[in-house]
Amino acid sequence: MSSKTKKLERTMNAPAQVAATAVRDYTQPAAHPDLGSEVCVHLHPEGVPLFIEPVSERLKTDFAAFKAWFVEHEQAIEALLHKFGALRLRGFPVNGSEDFAQMMAHYPSADMGYTGGGTPRAALAGKVFEATRFPKNIRLPLHQEMSYLKHWPLKVGFYCHQPSEVGGATDIGLISRLESLLEPSFLERIRRHGLIYKRNFRDKYVESDDLLHPDLVSLHRPWQEAFFTEDRAEAQAACEKMGLEWRWLDDGSLETRYRSSGFVNHPVLGTQHMFNQANTMNTIDSGVNSINWPAYTERYTHRPKPTECTFGDDTSMTHDEVMMYRQAGHQATVIVPWQKGEVMLIDNILVLHGRSPYEGERNIQVQLFGSGSHG
């Protein structure tokens, strides 16, 4: 580890101390005039996230006091979220799913929940879900939550109940940074034509998990799990409510199709940003920490792929285009290891998120808030 990395790690893990005079850019821990005297803030060197930490013993140890503070300062927290894109609440007394649910109870839940979501996960407490069960050896590229659907959450909350022994960070990155790294012609093509998402959900009674290679189980979801029903009619109704075209295939699988603009306007800031998952919906051999490519090609060369994203004129993206997207995402990625009890809140348009590969047990929990729409 380089001396620069060691210095950065010490800085990120050191106890917060309030500066005598607030630093406007918050590169050093400082009080914030809109958050009161019991906390300090400081900004990650790469511009995201903004850390908020308690300096009073009361907010470090009393969950009821912390929750009251969090609700009282909702407007200030919202303003900071729109300015910085991601807030990391570190050192507050959040100890379990119930605490995580309670502290966020004043936020409106996302209407869609995880119906039609791309990866498997289970509900834990109320609107709290486990993070994706995607294989731990695979890196999840940066993406915006459920941007491949008509309706999607405006905010995503994360809670670390147990950090993994090695790796396992919830990677984040600014959409403005990602956009600056992509070829302008690629962005313009999305803006001009939009995108089409094609997805296939297998029938778990025709092709159970044990018939698939282990690395493909979480990639190719059964429609019964994705739509939380065993009834075809209910799955169809869910598709129609979500604005998806659908059809049943002879193998019992459900195929869906959705056309998206690929860009959205931020509902508060009014700025337009790329908003899609063209990088994650196109499965390619991207090297280390990617999907098992031999197993994937053997399985899907002559079968419907679990996911695919094309340009709106039905032209497929090339391998080089998808790799460019992923490499840009990698360059935009900011990795901050989790600490037990931390909560992170992100603006789903301004900040993308992913997951580093990891070893050992990991328990990260998620909530979705607010509802946006492609129109």
From TrEMBL:
Gene3D superfamilies: Clavaminate synthase-like (3.60.130.10). InterPro entries: AlphaKG_dependent_hydroxylases, TauD-like_sf, TauD/TfdA-like. Its cofactor is Fe(2+). Coiled coil: none annotated. GO terms for molecular function: 2-oxoglutarate-dependent dioxygenase activity. SUPFAM superfamilies: Clavaminate synthase-like (SSF51197). It comes from the Bacteria. It holds the Pfam family TauD. PANTHER family: GAMMA-BUTYROBETAINE HYDROXYLASE-RELATED, TAUD_TFDA-LIKE DOMAIN-CONTAINING PROTEIN. This is TauD/TfdA-like domain-containing protein. It comes from Pseudomonas nitroreducens.
